[in-house]
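#structure-requests
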Amino acid sequence: MLENGFSGLNFQCVSSCVVKGPAVQMTSLICTLQHHQDDVNWCAFSAKLLATCSGDKTLRIYDARDFSELPFSPLTGHGYSVHCCCFSTCSQFLASCSTDATTVIWSMVSGEIEAVLEHPGRSPVRICAFSPDSLHLVSGASDGTLALWDFPSRQLRRTGAVNDTTMVACSFSPCSQMFMTGSTYGDLRLWDLRMNQLHAEKNAHDLGVSCCTFAPSILSGGQVVQFRVASCGQDSLLKIWAINKLSSGAYKMKLLHTLTGQSAPVLSCAYSSDGQLLVSGSVDKTVTIYDAENAVLLYRLKQHERYVTACAFSPTSPLIATGSMDKTINIWRLEDGCGGNGGKLLPEESAQTSIKGRASGGRSKLLVSDWSEDDVSEWLLEEGLEGLVDRFKANNIDGTELLSLTKETLASELHVESVGLRSKLLRKVEELKSDSVCLGIPDEFLCPITRELMKEPVIAADGYSYEKEAIESWINTKNRSSPMTNLPLLTTLLTPNHTLKMAIGRWKTSH
């Protein structure tokens, strides 16, 4: 079909509203790309481009501003289905891998093939991933082998393998020094650049892993550096993990959240560039969007007609691309405000809306930090957490202590053994925090360096958000130490915090 002069590009105006914090966020389907002739297997954004690949042996390249197809698209060179594609950090190159046992490097200036990397053993290549510094490329194959390539020289550096499985997932850490793989065996494995296994999480997903992705930020505190990883699998679950690097150099991996928003195998997942949102696609034909930090389902999108096999966030704008076995790619926009009734709130969202502002009796005029132990007990009853009332009373938990609860204190001091119950309680506490009345500028809106309202917030490797100009100046003059922890920054990569920027904009409008 022809729309706005572009063949195969269908512009639509399907809008949906989602409750997120004190404001309403709109998810709009802005266009549908219909060029592929077979299943869409993967999609990837760079700052200016969108790449998609398919069982039709081709890759398609689009301008991320208007989603017009570039003159040199489609890219043809693979002999069989193309399973995955990824951009180098500078966006100059695109890598793609295929059943034809190769990983092809394409120029995004000309669309020409720059190199063809033949996988050791000539097994079908199912996954490929660039390191954030673009110095390495890893590819994984159907025979369980891994190939680590030196990207500047296009030379094979090292190989590794996991027997009796197929490599189907891979993601580099934001520091570029290690990567995670997932296989049809169901395990997640952490590797360093010497191809040493740093950790193996067996049976991470029953029936097999389908995708894994590192969050873009690095968290640090004390003697521990923490990474976050999301994974999904044939067990219909999306999981969020913490990987802690201890001062001894050892790595420990623990499960933080299990997300059950989809009813069939989850095939793909991706973090937003600020790490605050997580999107996933499933065999149940839905796309789900989560608040990644609080593990809250924000919205479920139902526009694809078959399995959703791919999803990706734009690194520079609030856009999501989702690909499907229906041969289409949907482009979604997340934006503030909702000027119509095109969407339908989920039951979870309706419940959150009805709870907001609802506080009985004397609590309605109090900040949570001023709550008494009885106020906390009353709140627990209202939220369906009556099983915790006696335990909280025995430990004299008042409003201040309620706000300071963590997973660790719930487990070790209050002996709440259920992971699900701990997660539910902490989500409710986060809602309380977001509903609290703030006098003056919220502290999280202030740059830790300048203590001024941020205009262009970015996330540094220490996990904190700063004004872009301030942290750039700090890095250039302070020998790459963190302003908050004084520990060395593992990378100088700065990620735009779009979610925080939108929150600041909403706050300024309301004040």
